[in-house]
Amino acid sequence: MTYPVSPYNQEGGLYHFPRMLDKIRLNLKGELDTSYLPRLGKGLDGFLCRFVGVQYDQVATLVEEGKNDAEIVAWCEENGVRRHKHDRLLFNKFVEKLGWRDEEYSQRLMDYKKDSNLSHRNDIVTFFDLIEVEEGRKP
Hints:
Elements: E1 10-11, E2 14-15, H1 17-28, H2 43-52, H3 56-64, H4 69-79, H5 85-96, H6 103-115, H7 127-134
Antiparallel strand pairs: 1-2
Helix pairs in contact: 1-3
């Protein structure tokens, strides 16, 4: 199986941007595992799109047209909300810690860990941790 790049990868100073684009590209080539399909454009993808002020479908269309990551970020800045360095830092810290000590997402994280038979892993405290473990980048 081909996994998308890590959520820690950045484009335009934002975590997850390359991952979202990579998932779209893998899906277009038929190489994205079907387990990812129900969440495309949702979850972290949705947070990111709302943060930059664009629709996920618009981004997917740009990927389909063959635009590279930098071109898509530039398009988002022109057509969405241009975010300052401080805003990007806050977004990165938010998504990096999503699932850790928050009401709504802590329970979701526990549910996902259970579904992945990882409930015993106390070191998985964020969604980024879970992704990195599930995709083999973190033991």
